[in-house]
Amino acid sequence: MESRHKFDFDKLTQRRGTASLKWDVAEGELPMWVADMDFECAPCIKSAVIRRAEHGIYGYNIVPDEWAEAYAGFWKRRHGWEMKREYLTFTTGIVPAISSLVRRLTNIGDSVALFTPVYDIFFHSIENAGRHTLEVPLVYADGEYHIDFADLEEKLKRPLTTLFILCNPHNPCGNVWTAEELRCIAALCRAHGVAVISDEIHCSLTDVGVEYTPFASVSAEAAEISVTCLSASKTFNIAGMQSAAIYAENEALRNKAVRGVNSDEVAEPNCFAVAATVAALNDGEEWLDEAREYLDANKARVREFIAENIPSLRCVKQRCTYLVWIDCSAITSDSDELCEFIRKRTGLMLSSGAQYRGNGRYFLRLNTACPRARLEDGLGRLKSGIEQYIAFKKGN
């Protein structure tokens, strides 16, 4: 990037040999699937962790007041949402929290509604608990997705639908839901007695100049019926620190949520979780601003490259996340097969859209959160893989 940048996002840090979920792959393979960044975290986070490590004693930890203050301060400065600190509860991750919430807010056999295609772990949280996933497919037209509110209402009014899980902003489609859309969701859920879990883990990774709206901020009824899941992990690339938060203004929902994460033993921090999170939220915004600019440039490069070199693919219109959602419907309806083929022929590892249900079988998900040289390598492999796949299908 240009010299005006303070942080080096072009640095090719070696992640092999670090027990990385993403990079524990065969030599020669290039993983561009799981949603973490190949950038080193903000220096303020590294310094905070080193200071904590140098203390030399790693016993049980509490959650100090500065943790909630850091969350409240960041969301007020960054997103204009003023949370009540006492309504925040620590949890080791958004996925553990959602799994606990599903068990606490619903009964076995209930239906949990959600827009699809969507982050696949939601399905596990629902179905592993003996509940049923109720898909509300997003409508795909002209290269972007939108909500079918009539279908949403029909699903919400079913007697066994007791919970709606919202991804705000939405992964993998990249929608940044508007305040009006969120108010409509809240009104329908309230009318039909359906609670809402709003997963807002991608909220600070909107495109430059684009702002997200917290679900609980749009109306009194939205705040009354919802539990919001928040974390610095995706934004600041600290998922391995296992630190997140849940927030609920409704006392009954909050009590159930707090009881749930405590009963499931996912409410106690490891010795680095608080230090890393507080540093990120209090002192990491300059790094985040530059990271978003770099990610915007990477996503623009992917769109440009695909338009010029892989005309059989199409990038979906997105306004959030570093995950590009790619329409491959012109060449296949089996993204599992396509991903496996590309990996075998080129070493490039992408996420198959099929796992996200909905119309995901027609899509690939590509993670752009990496240095530009690595991205260019991935794009070259993608081009080669698609060309070979088309030739292979024609040969059969």
What is the topological layout?
Elements: E1 30-31, H1 43-55, H2 65-79, E2 88-91, H3 94-105, E3 111-116, H4 121-127, E4 132-137, E5 139-141, E6 144-146, H5 149-156, E7 161-167, H6 179-191, E8 195-199, H7 220-225, E9 226-230, H8 233-236, E10 244-247, H9 251-263, H10 273-283, H11 285-309, E11 314-315, E12 323-327, H12 335-346, E13 348-349, E14 351-352, E15 363-367, H13 372-395
Helix pairs in contact: 1-10, 2-10, 3-4, 3-9, 5-6, 11-13, 12-13
What are the main properties of this structure?
396 residues; alpha/beta; Aspartate Aminotransferase, domain 1; Aspartate Aminotransferase, domain 2; 4-stranded antiparallel β-sheet; 13 helices; 15 strands
Describe this structure in words.
- The protein has 13 helices and 15 strands.
- The chain is α/β, with parallel strands linked by helices and 396 residues long.
- The strands form 4 sheets. It has a 7-stranded mixed beta sheet, with helices on both faces. A 4-stranded antiparallel beta sheet has the order 11-12-15-14.
- It starts with 29 loop residues before the first strand and ends with a helix.
- It has 2 domains: 30-41 and 285-395, Aspartate Aminotransferase, domain 1; 46-283, Type I PLP-dependent aspartate aminotransferase-like (Major domain) (Aspartate Aminotransferase, domain 2).
- α2 runs parallel beside α10, α3 (94-105) packs parallel to α4 and α11 runs parallel beside α13.
- β7 (161-167), α6 and β8 form a beta-alpha-beta unit.
